[in-house]
Amino acid sequence: MRQNFLGLADKILEQFSQADDLIHHDIKYNGETVTLYFLKSIANEDSITRLFIKPFFEVGNLNEYCSYIRSLTIFKEFKDEDEVLQALSIGHLLVKVHYQYFLFDTKNVKNNVILETAVETTVHGPHTAFSEDFETNLNMIRHRYHEPKLAIEIDKIGKRNDVNMVLIYDPTYVNPNTLDAIKTDLKNLDKSLIISVGQLQKYMNKKSKALLPTTLLTERPDRTIFAIEKGKVVVMIDGSPFVLIAPAIFYDFMSAMDDIYQFFWATMFIRLLRYGGLFLTLLLPGLYVAVTSYNTEVFRVQLALSIASSRVGVPYPSFIEVLFMLLMMEFLIEASLRLPKTISSTATMVGGLILGQAATEAVLISNIMIIIVAAVAIANFVIPINEMSVAIRVLKYVLLFTASIGGLMGLTLGFVMILFYFIQVDSYGEPYLKVMYEKKEKSVKGESA
Amino acid sequence: MSRYYYYLLILNMLANITVFTPKLLLEKRTNGMIGSLIIAVILGITFLWIITKIFIKFPGRGLPELLESYTPKWFAKLYLLGAGLTWYVAGITTLIGYSFLSKRYLNPDMSLTMIVSIFLVVITFGILMKSQKVLYALEFALALCAPIIIVIIIKASFSDSMNWEIARMPFTYYRNLPSYETISVAMFSVLGYINISIFNREWKKPQKLKIGPIAGIGLLAFINLLTTTLIPIGFNGIDGVGDIVYPWIFTSDSIRMEFFFLERVFIMFLLLYLVISLISMVIHWHVGFQFLMGFSTFPFIKWKKHQLGKYVYIAFFWIASIQIVNRIPEFQAISFIKLYLSLIIPYITFMVLLLFFIVRKVKKNEA
């Protein structure tokens, strides 16, 4: 609204000269002229017509019109020309009245559709996931968490694309040290393009080469609320249907929202099942190698004999057999993930059934191997959060390797090694894996051990 | 006290079943063993009380920090070097024992060097963790193993092969005088508190030592020593048990779980004790490593801003361990361990005197 932006109109036309969707539109009435500038593709034309063009003809007096548009809630102050150019590019409207300029937020968001949960589904919980628009998401959070103190800090991130980033936390519960650490991390992020929260998750992990996720991605509003109430910090990025929760510890990755919605013993059972799956998928390939090639005396003799008899004719040592089948399974999982849905069912069919069947008949692998590979694959999917399930998928090869070197001893030592690896990781000052966590009040004060 | 303090105590009790302690105790089974066990527990708890009581006066400070502020520099350095090596030897006794055990029962085809190297990889990773994380790892190992070990011990006590008549026989030799050797070997099971000299750094809040839990620990230690010795006697006979190098391994191989998918308890027992001994080695070497770091961090050894001083010790740990395990035959290892364990009492007495000296100096400074 300042008057010293004399060349602004020309500058806009010059900067957007290649943008065919720029509208600069003069409206004239009673000899008075007002010019509107906006990008047709991203601004909301309806509201522009309703709020700016119609009143112009009804008021008829420029002074009154100016005070009218300045009283609109979408009115924005601005400091310099660059800010105007930036604002136009994200759907703002610039109104020129004589030599005065007014800026308005008339963004038209097309991706604010609330999605169905696709990654984390539950039986009883809410079935809606976040949308790709952050304001819709904020609405969903506010709608579920009525707390006047709730902090919502909107900021920009990414040098080039300058996308909206929102930090949400409850000041009553959050640990100030954690909050500071997260803020510094986000501030120090030196990336030109931030497209999704997944990217943030990667960059916020302190080590450049890490395996374990130390922050959690979720698409579920209920999980987000739950995390906020637990004193965690939520980071949201415009355009991404996922939010990032930090800090996240190992147990967070092993819990599904259903755990809260079901009865105690049902939950306990399902948790037990999940940890059973975790151990199975980690240990089974290594155990097979250790038991067939090193310590055959471990199992009862009938089982040892039946494993040995099914391996009759298999030309390779057991670790090659396991590696071959596990890799086949990984190919299958990767292929069915990226293929178009219509083809992927054929791929799984050919891969899973025919390949497995043929491989046993050709005596490349034993029958029991097929059972083990299937069990490993299924047990891996029991882990509810995808990042953790991928990490475990990688770690089972480590155990396969140690078991191939040292038999049962190698397997056990490898397992302890993995345990150490999990234990020494920190997620924003929170120990990643620990048998028992202290009560929340204690951990907030930063007192532990 | 913090719960991790009790974990340290319990770890030593569990770890003492492994390898050579039962054999060393059982040597004197008809020669005042029970009396020695009682004396060892009483003596051990007394030392525990004194040392812990002194350390909780200095919350958040370990022995290296105390020595640095209250004793002459040459003495502190010398003492830390000695303590570091002592703790290193404590770890290596377990390493020797378990590598022979692995060679015999788990991986007969593998060379000792290879077995020791596999151990060392994991241990190295463990000792380089922060002290707090080592305690977390300890808690995890105990949470995973202790329940199953207790089940095995209970199953052993109620097994048909367990003859309680024979197991009671050592009590009939109560008139024999207790022996120094047995006392010092048995002291090992109540020695976990001594690691407070490093882990006290993690307990920054003032702690309280209560009589109740410590009396419980004393009782637990006594029961633990009794099961360690009496159950192998009950299984193998009071004469036969003397010929066995690994009494508990033999004993566990006499127990079957008919309806479990693992029939032999033995293999489960070996693997559980693999984890327990590993974590015990990590604790000992971590403490030793911290002492050595207190001795010197070799600040002049660096490469591109990275301080490499600590890797000098790691290299020393590796080379010395592989050499020792390969050079010392098993029967010599046993007498070596016996000698080492018999030094426990003089060592702790010296440490107590040192701590008294420090406390006196603190009082003088205050006055």
From TrEMBL, chain A:
Q: Which UniProt keywords apply?
A: Membrane, Transmembrane, Transmembrane helix
**Which family would the database say this protein is a member of?**
Belongs to the GerABKA family.
What InterPro entries does the annotation carry?
Spore_Ger (IPR004995), UPF0353/GerABKA_families (IPR050768)
Name of the protein this chain belongs to: Spore germination protein
The compartments listed are: Cell membrane; Membrane
Q: How does it sit in the membrane?
A: Multi-pass membrane protein
Q: Does the keyword Membrane apply?
A: yes
Xref: Pfam families: GerA (PF03323)
Which residue windows are transmembrane per the record? 233-251, 272-294, 314-333, 365-385, 397-423
TrEMBL record, chain B:
- A Pfam short name: Spore_permease
Give the domain of life: Bacteria
| Any coiled-coil regions, as ranges | none
Q: Name the keywords, alphabetized.
A: Membrane, Transmembrane, Transmembrane helix
Do the record's keywords include Nucleotide-binding?
Answer: no
Q: Which InterPro entries match?
A: Spore_GerAB
Q: What is this protein called?
A: GerAB/ArcD/ProY family transporter
Please give the organism. Robertmurraya mangrovi
Q: What high-level taxonomic lineage is stated for the organism? A: Bacteria, Bacillati, Bacillota, Bacilli, Bacillales
